[in-house]
Amino acid sequence: MDDVLDCLGAERCTMTSVEAQEWMAETLVVSKAVEGVPIAPGIHCNQCHYSAKNKRVMKNHISKLHKGASWGEVVSEGMVQVVFKGRLEKYILVEELEMEVESNTGR
Ligand SMILES: [Zn+2]
């Protein structure tokens, strides 16, 4: 079960699934976008830093984990990155978007 994941662009692509799960468990928010990973508009849970791209997923999350909380109370919009694909797919919130996203020519 040591399959290597397609993850985090070129630099960290050698994570095993166990490492990846550990990394995921402690990484919910990154202060800076992970290089090589696409950034997309998404939504973010203020209560536990869960991120998602899709409102249906977030609704499901709220009804499971924050019963009774209202959407506006818990959810804010933000930019997210999909750090893993497939069964470990997960979104993390990018706190600060540096403008390198726009000037991302070259390199
Ligand atoms: Zn939450």
Largest sheet: 5 strands, mixed
Q: Can you list the strand order of the major beta sheet?
A: 1-5-4-2-3
Succession of helices and strands: HEEEHHEE
Number of helices: 3
Average pLDDT, rounded to a whole number, is: 78
Shape, principal axes of CA atoms = globular
Radius of gyration: 15 Å
Oligomer: single chain
Class by SSE composition: alpha+beta
The fraction of residues in strands falls at: 25-35%
Q: Helicity, in percent? A: 10-25%
Q: Could you explain the architecture of this structure?
A:
With 107 residues, this protein is of the alpha+beta class. 23% of the residues lie in helices and 28% in strands. Strands 1-5-4-2-3 form a five-stranded mixed β-sheet. A hairpin with a 5-residue loop joins strand 4 (75-84) and strand 5. Residues 1-5 have low confidence and may be disordered. Zinc ion (ZN) is lined by residues 45, 47-48, 50, 61, 65-66.
Explain the layout of strands and helices:
Elements: H1 17-26, E1 29-32, E2 39-45, E3 51-52, H2 55-65, H3 71-74, E4 75-84, E5 90-96
Parallel strand pairs: 1-5
Antiparallel strand pairs: 2-3, 2-4, 4-5
Zinc ion (ZN) binds near residues 45, 47, 48, 61 and 66.
Q: Keywords for this structure?
A:
107 residues, alpha+beta, five-stranded mixed sheet, 3 helices, 23% helix, 28% strand, globular, binds zinc ion
Produce a short descriptive summary.
It contains three helices and five strands, in the order H-E-E-E-H-H-E-E. It has helices at 17-26, 55-65, 71-74; strands at 29-32, 39-45, 51-52, 75-84, 90-96.
